[in-house]
Amino acid sequence: MSFRLAAYAVCIEGGRVLLARHVPPKGESTWTLPGGRVEHAEDPFDAVIREVAEETGCDAVVERLLGVDSRIIPAAERTLRGGPEHQNVGIFYRVRITGGRLRPEPNGEIAESVWTPILDVAGLRRSSLVDIGLAMAQTLPPTGHVAPIPVGGPIRH
């Protein structure tokens, strides 16, 4: 089984959420939250700020920890076919954008970042991370954990 620790930014402003369009080398694009892998010896708090800057071109500050999600992605459901089962542990933060200008990720897989009305999210082909982050931001669960998000239709791993 492979493993990844990641930090994700939930940026909500004026009824809109900041989403990033991930375009993998192979496969279809999906909308996701800004964020990604926590590097070796890096604090997740610092990682989420770094990832927002790398992927969107914007400066950000963390406002609060929202929660942690751990999920197993079966090998058959991975976007990279032939890989083993995968565990993703995501740390979700409420983040506020403080400056910069939205742009594509240089030499990366984020083609664009856009402020999207929250009501429009349900119709997008998106990562389950989007639904998890929005659920955490909207409910502020005292345990920092939300029920599993079903994958299927427009929702992907």
Describe what you observe in this structure.
There is one protein chain. With 157 residues, the chain is α+β, with helices and mostly antiparallel strands. 16% of the residues lie in helices and 43% in strands. It has a single domain (2-156), classed as Nucleoside Triphosphate Pyrophosphohydrolase. The chain is built from two helices and ten strands, in the order E-E-E-E-E-H-E-E-E-E-H-E. The strands form three sheets. The chain has a four-stranded mixed β-sheet. Strands 2, 3, 4 and 8 form a four-stranded antiparallel β-sheet that branches. Strands 9-10 form a two-stranded parallel ribbon.
Low-pLDDT windows of residues: none
Give the quaternary arrangement of the chains: single chain
- Count of alpha/pi helices: 2
Distance between the termini: 16 Å
Name the structural class. Answer: alpha+beta
Strand numbers in spatial order across the main sheet:
5-1-7-6
Q: Tell me the strand percentage band.
A: 35-45%
CATH superfamily: Nucleoside Triphosphate Pyrophosphohydrolase
The coarse overall form would be globular
What is the count of distinct domains? 1
Give me the CATH fold name.
Answer: Nucleoside Triphosphate Pyrophosphohydrolase
Secondary-structure element pattern, one letter each: EEEEEHEEEEHE
Q: According to CATH, what is the class?
A: Alpha Beta
Sheet with the most strands? Answer: 4 strands, mixed
Question: Level of helix content?
Answer: 10-25%
Per CATH, which architecture?
A: Alpha-Beta Complex
What is the strand tally? 10
Mean pLDDT: 94
Rg calc: 15 Å
